Amino acid sequence: MRSSRRPSFLTAVFLVGAPALAQTSAPNDLSWMCRDVPAAVGAVEEVALPVGTSPRAITVGPDLQLWFTEGSGKIGRLSRSGEVTEFPLPTRSAGPQQLVPALDGNLWFTESSVSRVGRITPQGEVTEFPLPSRGSAPTGITSDLDGHVWFTELTGNRIGRMSWSGELTEFSLPSGSQPRAITLGLDGRVWFTEQGTNKVAAMAEEGTLSEYDVPTPRSGLAGIAVGLDGAVWFTEQLGNKVGRVTREGLVTEYDVPTPGSGPLALSLGPDGNLWFVESLANQVARITRDGVITEFAIPTVDSVPAGIVFAPPGPLCLDAHLWFTEFGGDKLGKVRALPVPSR
Fold first, then answer.
1. Which strands sit side by side in the sheet containing 138-143, from one edge to the other?
2. How does DSSP assign 183-238, residue by residue?
3. How would you classify the pairing of strands 74-78 and 168-172?
4. Rounded mean pLDDT of the chain?
5. pLDDT over 90 for what percent of the chain?
6. What is the pTM assigned to this prediction?
7. 272 φψ region: left (φ > 0), alpha (ψ -120 to 50), beta (else)
8. Degrees (nearest 5) of the Cα angle 205, 207, 208?
């Protein structure tokens, strides 16, 4: 086994392209962007899904198409041509939560209601792996380059590691931790939010745990993602803030301008900034490395945005958008992060 883990598939994609875009010496040179119709930064387009879909998490698959979990108990896919395909899960009322691509060429996801981890091929073939403890509520999930996916057990109070063949290792956490979202840091550790103890934590491959207190009490820690600055960023759903923690554990918090916005998932964008959804304010927002937050309205009222991810790249170019889910609106949304050359 390698001595350290490296970034997951999605992080690896950004490590190739985004740093050059975010730190280019010629910021007005957008030749590397995919051409598109003119639109302002923050402009939102929406794609309707079948009624009752209730899309939750979203990611880019190994096939470079958009994949998302559905509250209806399915996994959905949106092709480049706009075709929506839904794949029912073998277990009814599975409660699919987060999903992530892995380098085995498949996507992996959590089924919180039935305590299982699932795998789906690009062709839609699903395999489910039951966890030893019923009621463990697997929620967040991430992948590494060493043949594993890592996931949180919200009520099981553990971090799980599963090989691509289904071999499971579990690491217990301090009582009441309630781990929620998880990501792979640039330091080779998995980082996750502990909503029960109000901490952000990091775990090394052998299970060594480091925890860092969040200053705002009962902040409702939610999403987590890695920034280009090497720090880990997270959202505080109840505290109405976005936080940043360094590898050394230094935590900084930034207030979201709209009160009670309910910030949830966040993702690195093609502009090098972090973008996040505001589940209770019907907005998607951008935060710079300096903590400056700009908010953009979503056209559909009460859309309840839930997940967000950078757009799949085009042929030899980078897409200027991020995609997000609208749990209450049965739609996927697309927000412009950068100006682009006209078609």
1. 138-143, 148-153, 158-163, 168-172
2. EE-TTSSEEEEETTTTEEEEE-TT--EEEEE-SSTT--EEEEEE-TTS-EEEEETT
3. unpaired
4. 91
5. 83
6. 0.91
7. left
8. 105
Rounded to whole angstroms, the Cα distance separating 291 from 300 reads 27
- Which token pair is 137? 């509520």
DSSP state of 311: P
| Tokens 């992996």 found at | 108
Dihedral over alpha carbons 152, 154, 156, 159 (to 10 degrees): 20
Mean per-residue pLDDT for 282-289?
97
Q: Among candidates 219, 331, 321, 234, which has minimal Cα distance to 282? A: 331
Query: Phi and psi at residue 16, in whole multiples of 5°?
Result: -80, -45
DSSP 16: H
125-171 tens-digit pLDDT: 999 999 999 999 999 999 998 899 999 999 999 999 999 999 999 99
Non-local (6+) Cβ contacts of 95 within 8 A are 73, 111, 112, 113, 114
